[in-house]
Amino acid sequence: MPVVFRRDRRGIAYADERSFDRDAHGVLWERTPSQPGRGVAQFGKVHSLRQRLCMTGLRCQICGAPADRTPDGVLWLIDAHAGELLPVGETTAHPPVCRPCAHLSSRACPHLRSQQVALRVRRFRPSGVRGALYLPGPTAPRLFDAQTLPLTDPRLPWLLGSQLLVHLIAYTPIDLNDPTA
Length: 181
Known about the structure:
The chain is 14% helix and 35% strand. By secondary structure, the chain is mainly β.
């Protein structure tokens, strides 16, 4: 779907824009067909609508069911080692997971096979958007570059979003094989 100028020319839009094309932050999101239950998982390829819905609704990124949740927090898998976690928090584009899919994805996903840490996340917040940045052109917006922008960036109206980023603030690494964790 080609993008056009917004009516005020202060960003991009779709000519036939619908209410669900933008999120609460005003970001225009790339349109992707949705056919739940059809096809097979394609690890490494992100379905932007599903990714955003899983992130905001705390749904499993693999099966779409509710993410695993205990009093200690929501289950997330991060492609890092526990010793590499940043003390100020981690930012990720990967939505949370349910426990059965956590085990499946840790074996099937190439990024997680070599290194992973399971986290119980107690606090998190949306922090940015990854996507295609456009610039104003003489007659239409023109594609500039792939960018990751914080939600406070003034260029956000020019970004066609493909992935929502979340900052994990308070978390505890857990052993995924421990059924009580």
